[in-house]
Amino acid sequence: MDGDGPPRSGAAEQLIGRDHDLGLVRGFVDEAMVSGGALLLSGDAGVGKTVLLDAAAGQAHGAGTRVVRAAGVEFESTISFAGLHQVLQPLLAGLDGLTDPYRTALSVALGLDQGAPSDQLLVSNAALTLLVQAAADRPLLVIVDDLPWLDRASAVVLGFVARRLAGSRVGFLGAYRSGEGSFFERGGVPHHHVQPLDTTAAAALIEARSPSLAPRVRERLLTEAQGNPLALLELPVALTAPQRSGAAVPELLPLSHRLQAVFASRVETLPAATRLLLLYAVLDGTGDLRVLAAATPQGTGMEDLAHAERAGLVDATTGRLAFRHPLTRSAVVELATSEQRREVHRALAEYWADRPERRAWHLAHATVEPTEDVASLLEAVARDTVRRGDAGGAIAALLRAAELSPRGYERSRRIAEAAYLGADLTGDLRDVPRLLEEARLADGGRAGPLVAAVAAAHHILLSGEGDLDTAHRLLVGAIDM
C-alpha cells in the first residue's frame, strides 16, 4: 500500500513511556532519507511495535518522503511473492525504467506476465533496483509489519534488499514478534527490541485512559499486563462496571476481542492434550508439576507440555510451571468450553480434598445450580479469610456463596454480610448501596436481616449521607423484627 496519503491515526505525541524508542526510530528515518539503511523492531505481541511504525510513517510524510507500507498476512503466507507484491505494487509504474532482464524477472514473479521463473538472485536485484530508482526523485521509506507471516519467496528477497540499501535514500523498517520464526534473514540488519513499559509509564498510561478504575483493580491490571501497552488499554474494556469498581474482580481477567486475537492465537495452534494440560495448570494455579501429573486424566502426559515450552508460552525448567505472560492464562481458559472448565475444577476439587479452601473454590467453579452444601463451604472460607485479614477475598467468597444459595434468606444474608465487610473493613463504599438492594430483593423485598441494617448504618455514617439518628433507627428497627 502506498503511503502518500495522510499517516495513520495514533499520533506519537500521545505515546507514554516511549521517548527512547521514538528517538531511535526518528533518528533512523532521518538518516535513512539521506543515506539509506534498514532497522528491525522486535518485541512481544501488543508491546507497541506497530505504533512506532506509525510514528515513523508520520515523520517521513512530514519530511516529504514517500512511504510504502505492507504487512505479512497469514492466509497469503503460502502464495509466492505475495508480500513482495504488496511492497512493489505502488511502484510498478517504474518497471519500464528497468532493463529487460530485470523487468521480465519481476513481472513474472509478481504474476504480471507469463514466462519461465527467474533466478532468485535476479528477482532480488531487480527489486532492489526498482526501489532505488523510485527514490531518485525523493526518498522512500518501506515499512513491513508482521515479517514472520511473509511468504518464503518475499522474505528472501526483502531480506536481500534490506542488507543492501546503504547510500540509496531508501529506508527499510520492519517489525516482528519476538520468538517467532521467519524466512526473513535478519543477519546483518540492525535490530532494536521494544521493551514493555516500565512501572511508572504503565501506571501513567492506565491512569490516563481508565481514570475511574478502583485502586486495587488498577494494581491488579498493572500486575497482569506486565507493561504491555495493548493489555493496559484493553483489559479495562473487558471488565463490567462492578468489576471496574472492585466489587468482584475475577481470578482470571477477561480478554477483549483484540487481546484474544493476540494471546489466544498461539494457544490455538497447540495440540488438544497440551491445551488440556495448560487448562489444569491455570485452574490449579500452584504451578506444581506434581499436581498436573496426578490430577490430569489418562492419556495426558507431562510430555505434552513440551509443545507449550517450544512455543515460548511456559517455562518448566525450575521444576514448576510458569506462564511467560499472565494473560496467556486467560487465553487458555477462554479457549476452553464451560463444560471442560467444570470437569477440570471437579478433578482438582477431588485432588485437593484435604485442603478445604481450595476444595471449596474448585467445587464452586464446578457448580451451576444452587447448592447449599457448596455455599456453606464457601461461607466458611470467607470466615477464615477475614481472620487472615483479606476482606476483599472474603467478600468474593460470600458473593459466590450467595449465588449458590438456594433459599432467599440465606442468599440475602450472605450478600448483606459482603456489604458489611465492604463498609467496615475495606472502607470502599461505592458498592454498598447496590449490594444492600440486592440483599433486599433476594429476601423477597422484605427489610432483610440485621446484618443488612448494620451495613446500611455504616454506609450512612461513613458516607455523610445521613446522621446518627437515622442509623440508630435502622438498627433498632432490624432488631425489633
Mean of residue pLDDT values: 83
Strand order of the largest sheet: 2-3-4-1-5
Q: Runs with pLDDT <50, length 5+?
A: 3-13, 458-481
Portion of residues within helices: 55-70%
The strand count comes to 7
Shape: elongated
What would you call the structural class? alpha/beta
Largest sheet: 5 strands, parallel
Q: Report how far the terminal alpha carbons are from each other.
A: 74 Å
The fraction of residues in strands falls at: 5-15%
Summarize the helix and strand pattern as letters.
Answer: HEHEHHHEHEEHHHHHHHHEEHHHHHHHHH
* Computed CA radius of gyration, to the nearest angstrom: 29 Å
Give a concise summary:
The protein has 481 residues and is α/β, with parallel strands linked by helices. The protein is built from 23 helices and seven strands.
Please supply descriptive tags for the structure shown above.
481 residues, alpha/beta, five-stranded parallel sheet, two-stranded antiparallel ribbon, 23 helices, 7 strands, 55% helix, 7% strand, disordered N terminus, disordered C terminus
Notes on the protein architecture:
- The protein is an alpha/beta fold and 481 residues long.
- It is 55% helix and 7% strand.
- The protein has 23 helices and seven strands.
- The chain has helices at residues 19-35, 49-62, 82-88, 100-109, 120-134, 152-162, 199-209, 215-225, 229-234, 241-245, 257-268, 272-284, 289-295, 305-310, 326-335, 338-351, 356-366, 372-387, 391-403, 408-426, 432-442, 450-463, 468-480, and strands at 37-43, 66-71, 140-145, 170-177, 191-193, 314-315, 322-323.
- α19 (391-403) runs antiparallel to α20 (408-426) and α21 (432-442) runs antiparallel to α22 (450-463).
- The longest helix has 19 residues, at 408-426.
